[in-house]
Design brief:
Elements lengths: L1 E8 L7 H9 L8 E7 L2 E7 L12 E2 L5 E9 L2 H6 L11 H11 L9 E9 L4 E6 L8 E4 L3 E5 L16 H10 L12 E3 L4 E5 L5 E5 L14 H19 L6 E4 L4 H13 L6 E6 L8 H11 L2 E6 L2 H15 L7 H13 L4 E3 L4 H5 L8 H6 L5 H9 L6 H10 L4 H7 L6 H8 L18 H27 L4 E3 L5 H7 L15 H7 L5 H5 L9 H4 L5 H9 L4 H5 L2 H12 L6 H20 L1
Parallel strand pairs: 13-14, 13-16, 14-15, 16-17
Antiparallel strand pairs: 1-3, 1-9, 2-3, 4-5, 5-6, 6-7, 7-11, 8-9, 8-10, 11-12
Helix pairs in contact: 5-6, 5-17, 5-18, 6-7, 6-18, 8-9, 8-24, 9-16, 12-13, 13-14, 21-23
Length: 609
């Protein structure tokens, strides 16, 4: 993958090439192999390159045949060879970037609909004097923009926009979003005036500075759900996922894979091994030195089954202290979860051996992998339940019943939207108001909360558009790019996603089994005990760390004299969280993490802007 930036002016002033180069330099980690700048009066692009396809050619920004169009492209078009064969164009390179220009010349902006892969790119057409931005269907790759009356700018990461953003400041509404979502949903960001291009959208900037944005792709509607037997559904997924894995291996550099020992990553690795006919595969996993959350033995078992050369890294409390601030800068926001640090350490390890890794990201949101999906109907209907008894029970629940505590907090929320986000929210609506005061809600979940139809489908649809796109994929991109590593999630091939939303919910959560269809497919490739073991995921033992290694740091940063959190949040409420966790009365690790990460991010932001 790469880093892209661009500036367009509407005040008659030319775009400065040195400005573009400086903006792109902030993205050097995304593209350490090469860099380039193109300027033409009031418009200019810059690019930093991580060479994956056609390493010796395809320098960017690139001009189209005849010079009518210029492109800055981040990503990989995995079907570029097939597309190229069907285009009449004077190609001068063997890569995918020039295929995008050829598609634009043949089909205009509609050419984006023919792409398979992950992408964020800009094309300026000097003939129409329009600039086009495109972001891939599932939001795997990022794209941000900043617009005023005199200027439009875009970039792969927010930090690259700071040279043109007037007085970068925190969008206060985003603080409520972060406490509710652990991230800021599109199109908003933490920085005033900076916006995300939503997943699957096309943005057009006209000559007069007017901006238009519209979707070029959406998930299938309810009317497209097919009538299929469970066995036939498994076969459909098998074919789609095999094709996606085959495409994901397209590269001119070594490709490896993350392997936690969970169902999703193990299945991807098993399919890669079969696709490669037993050829060498490097796999990577993280350990935490805590048997409660350590999946090392399962990862080793899976590695032996698929025949990979397996590598492990140990993540410790020191890794958090050493990397936290820098990774907040890379993410352009507070780290949403402790797993961000573990994902970065994993990317560091992988980059020592390969340039590209595959992951199992996206399976849970498409096929119903989280425990909460068993309670989709309850989440919708719980508004009729009395809240007070549920709150009373949650407050007296022992810390080791963490999942039940999460469920009680979610279903006791007053509205469907709050209950929907409550499963992942670190703070309830009442706790947020106590910390920050009430604030008008930005209705980012409204399009996904139709009270009719399939409740599980509504929940999966909302999570795919918010939790997945704005949190998990943002994390995956930033933490891998911080190590100059490309991440590819085969489950998020748009054909797999479309299939997921055409399949009935009964093959996703079946007989109380979450992600049933994926597990049934995995049984064809993996041992039953690996498939049926409890889900762990990237968990970090922060409960103990916040009572030990990180306790003093947490108190100092959250209620100390120079604390940003202390200046905007209710101090009594914050102190209560810290004391309750330290004493062992309650497990407040997720809420302490959320506030502490906000503090770390803000300090690093002030230091760097």
């Amino acid at each position: 993958m790469c880093g892209i930036v661009g500036v367009r002016r509407f005040d008659g002033a030319p775009v400065n090439g040195e400005l573009l180069a400086g903006m792109a330099h902030r993205l050097h980690h995304r593209g350490p192999d090469d860099a380039g700048v193109w300027c033409d009066g009031a418009i200019g692009f810059a690019h930093t390159r991580l060479s994956i396809i056609d390493p010796a050619g395809s320098a960017q920004p690139m001009a189209g045949a005849g010079g009518g169009a210029h492109i800055a492209f981040n990503g990989e078009i995995l079907n570029y060879r097939q597309l190229r064969d069907g285009l009449t164009y004077p190609f001068t390179t063997s890569g995918d970037t020039e295929v995008l220009l050829a598609l634009y010349e043949r089909y205009g902006p509609a050419g984006v609909g023919k792409l398979r892969g992950q992408f964020a790119y800009a094309i300026h057409d000097s003939r129409t004097n329009e600039t086009h931005l495109f972001r891939d269907r599932l939001g795997i790759l990022p794209l941000y923009y900043y617009a005023t009356d005199t200027l439009f700018a875009f970039a792969s990461e927010i930090k690259a926009l700071f040279p043109v953003v007037e007085k970068p400041g925190v969008d206060t509404a985003s603080l409520h979003d972060f406490l509710a979502h652990r991230s800021v949903p599109a199109p908003y960001t933490f920085i005033e005036g900076v916006r995300k291009v939503p997943q699957g959208h096309h943005l057009v900037v006209r000559a007069d500075g007017a901006v238009r944005i519209e979707a070029f792709w959406t998930l299938p509607p309810d009317s497209e759900v097919i009538d299929v037997t469970p066995d036939a559904a498994v076969d459909l997924l098998d074919n789609a996922l095999r094709s996606s894995v085959r495409d994901a291996l397209v590269a001119d550099v070594p490709v490896g894979a993350y392997l936690s020992g969970g169902v999703d990553s193990s299945l991807i690795c098993a399919l890669v091994a079969k696709e490669r006919n037993g050829e060498g595969l490097h796999t990577f996993s993280a350990a935490f030195g805590d048997e409660r959350v350590d999946e090392t033995r399962w990862a080793r078992m899976a590695a032996k089954i698929v025949g990979s050369e397996h590598h492990e890294t140990l993540v410790t409390a020191n890794d958090f202290q050493d990397n936290w601030a820098r990774l907040c800068w890379h993410r352009d926001s507070p780290l949403s979860e402790p797993a961000d640090v573990a994902v970065y350490r994993l990317a560091e390890l992988a980059r020592e051996h390969v340039k590209v890794v595959l992951s199992g990201e996206g399976s849970d949101e498409l096929f119903g992998g989280y425990p909460k999906y068993r309670y989709a109907r309850t989440t919708r209907m719980a508004g009729a339940l009395p809240r007070a008894p549920l709150r009373w029970l949650e407050e007296r629940m022992p810390a080791h019943r963490a999942r039940l505590v999460v469920a009680l907090r979610a279903i006791s929320e007053p509205t469907y939207a709050e209950r929907m986000r409550g499963w992942f929210a670190p703070f309830t609506s009442t706790e947020r108001d106590r910390l920050l005061g009430s604030s008008p809600e930005r209705s980012v979940l409204a399009p996904y909360l139709d009270g009719r139809g399939d409740a599980l489908r509504r929940m999966l649809y909302a999570d795919t558009h918010t939790w997945l796109a704005d949190n998990l994929l943002e994390r995956g991109d930033r933490m891998s790019m911080a190590a100059s590593l490309e991440l590819r999630p085969p489950f998020l091939d748009h054909r797999v996603a479309e299939l997921a939303f055409r399949l009935p919910s009964a093959v996703k959560v079946r007989g109380g089994t979450t992600k049933w269809i994926v597990k049934e497919l995995a049984r064809q490739h993996l041992p039953t005990d690996l498939v049926d073991r409890p889900k762990v995921g990237f968990k970090v033992p922060l409960d103990e760390w916040f009572r030990g290694h990180l306790r003093e740091m947490a108190f100092d940063m959250l209620i100390g004299p120079s604390s940003f959190v202390d200046s905007i949040f209710d101090r009594t409420a914050v102190r209560r969280l810290l004391d309750s966790h330290s004493s062992g009365e309650r497990d407040e690790q997720s809420r302490i993490w959320t506030l502490l990460s906000l503090e770390v991010w803000h300090r690093e932001l002030q230091r760097r802007i």
